[in-house]
Design goal:
With about 500 residues, this protein is α/β, with parallel strands linked by helices. Helices cover about 25% and strands about 20% of the residues. The protein folds into three domains: about 1-30 and about 405-488, no CATH class; about 35-95 and about 210-385, Rossmann fold (3-Layer(aba) Sandwich), CATH 3.40.50; about 100-200, Immunoglobulin-like (Sandwich). The chain has helices spanning about 60-65, 70-85, 140-150, 215-220, 235-250, 265-275, 295-310, 335-340, 380-400, 425-440, 445-450, and strands spanning about 35-40, 55, 90-95, 100-110, 115-125, 125-130, 155-160, 165-175, 180-185, 195-200, 225-230, 255-260, 280-285, 345-350, 355-360, 405, 420, 445, 455, 465-470, 470-475. α6 (about 265-275) links the parallel β12 and β13. α1 packs antiparallel against α2 (about 70-85) and α2 packs parallel to α7.
């Protein structure tokens, strides 16, 4: 039996018992894909982290030290970790747009108060409580609100006051701040004391977005399976989509999937979704969600990373997010409105019976093929994550079992101990691997796979084996439709 050794030479004459190890058959079954997560965000000057450098983050307190308390990056890390403390998480802070402007909103106070009470203000999803005494004037109340905001370093804003008007300014420059929200009396039972009213404007005037080219450079060739991305302007998304497209290609094979959120009206979300078409980005419609869009995106990314690493093709619907506030009951989108969003590349959530935000359907932004024809092949994120795993597992299997093998035609009579592969041998491996995937609930329709599978030597390059794997991906139970035909 002509065994081919790896480290024992064939010309040994020195007597001894030489034994080597070969691990090419050691690993059985499918490979374990260990997910890595990434957050891209902005830091404050007080943070110790360097720009454009990945940092492993395992706690909210560490994130605050690195990126500054109240910073976008720190708040995103906190939200990710609240939903997933197991997946390895890296955070990269990038520079704010130098010529950008911070978004701002105002609170105009009317008084005086004719009764004792408090002003309960929600900025993002963080509450600011301000005590109000009977007789307090509008200017006094405004000064108290300003002091309370500036006393809380966790808030995404700072503030200033002039007479009865408080101006809230987002901590970071950029257009993203225009989607932050502030409101009064969010929780049931809250009310301002008699004689007092607060008029809160929308956040506006934030301009520009960071240049993410340094972020892409900082990512290098590290594979980040799940990415929380806070910048939803056209330029940032275009650059991100181009990078992810290249990463998903057959050469780099550094698959990554990005999660974002957008706080716009239902009609504006439809318009926004129609303008994009990437199978590597998921955009959650965050209309009237108090939690900032960047924190919402981080929470979703963390939740998906946790559950997808367990079972990629299992549907994400009904998974509950931690520390994400829902819109008020009167401001929630209807089923019909959410259904329309799902035809325009926008993912949806719902509020479950316990009052928490839960994933309803998470989709990609892919809607049309290169000719502009409707195409649902990349609609479901579960299919994208499943495809990523299938490629990872097949590639890992081949590289582990056949790292230094020779290639021969079918029918070649070589010794059993020789490291030689043939097309039929690899075809048998593919069929066995399919059965493995089938048992895990990843694929279906074995007969079709076996019939369509192609393994052949390349005509022009005899050192190359070409393989066509045609798995039928398992689907997800989304809708159950039943008609009850009763009789009397």
């Amino acid at each position: 039996m002509p065994i081919s050794f790896n480290t024992i030479p064939s010309n040994l004459r020195v007597p001894f018992a030489y034994v080597e190890f070969d691990n090419t058959r050691a690993v059985q079954g499918s490979a374990q894909q260990v997910y890595k997560g990434l957050i891209a965000g902005l830091k404050l000057s007080g943070g110790t982290a360097n720009l454009n450098q990945p940092y492993l983050v395992t706690s909210a307190s560490q994130a605050k030290t690195l990126f500054g308390t109240g910073s976008m990056a720190a708040k995103m890390a906190e939200k990710w970790l609240a939903n997933n403390s197991f997946t390895q998480l890296s955070v990269i802070a990038i520079a704010e747009p130098g010529a950008g402007v911070q978004a701002a909103a105002t609170i105009t106070v009317t008084g005086p108060a004719t009764a004792q009470g408090s002003a309960e203000i929600l900025i993002g999803d963080q509450k600011v409580s301000v005590a109000i005494a009977s007789g307090d004037t509008a200017n006094t109340i405004a000064a108290s609100i300003n002091a309370a905001i500036n006393a809380d370093s966790e808030l995404p804003v700072t503030s200033s006051v002039s007479t009865n008007v408080v101006t809230m300014t987002v901590r970071h420059k950029g257009v993203h701040g225009n989607e932050l929200t502030a409101q009064v009396n969010y929780y049931e039972g809250e009310a301002l004391p008699t004689g007092v009213s607060l008029a809160i404007t929308a956040f506006t005037a934030g301009t520009l977005a960071p240049d993410i080219s340094d972020l892409i450079t900082a990512m290098g060739e590290e594979q980040y399976n799940i990415i929380a991305f806070p910048f939803t302007d056209a330029a940032s998304l275009t650059d991100l989509e181009a990078e992810l497209l290249d990463r998903w290609g057959g050469i780099r094979q550094n698959d990554g999937f990005a999660f974002c959120a957008k706080n716009l009206s239902q009609s504006a979300l439809i318009t926004f979704g129609d303008g994009r078409n990437s199978q590597f980005v998921s955009m959650m419609g965050a209309y009237k969600v108090p939690t900032s869009t960047w924190e919402f995106a981080a929470g979703i990314a963390g939740l998906v990373a946790f559950h997808a690493s367990i079972d990629q093709p299992r549907p994400l619907q009904t998974l509950q997010l931690t520390n994400v506030l829902p819109p008020k009951l009167t401001e929630r989108l209807t089923l019909e409105e959410r259904n329309l969003l799902l035809y325009d590349g926008i993912s949806t959530f719902y509020v479950n019976p316990s009052g928490n935000v839960a994933l309803e359907r998470v989709i990609t932004m892919y809607q049309e093929n290169t000719f502009g024809a409707p195409d649902t092949s990349y609609l479901n994120i579960e299919n994208m994550l499943n495809l990523s795993y299938l490629r990872f597992d097949w590639r890992t299997y081949i590289l582990n079992k056949y790292p230094r093998h020779k290639l021969a035609d079918d029918g070649t009579r070589f010794g059993p101990g020789q490291p030689v592969v043939t097309p039929n041998l690899i075809k048998a491996e593919a069929i066995t691997k399919f059965r493995d995937w089938e048992s895990q609930g990843r694929v279906e329709n074995f007969d079709q796979f076996k019939e369509d599978l192609i393994v052949e030597r390349n005509v022009l390059d005899r050192d190359r084996l070409d393989i066509y794997l045609p798995p039928d991906l398992i689907n997800q139970l989304r809708v159950t439709a039943t008609q009850i035909g009763f009789r009397l």
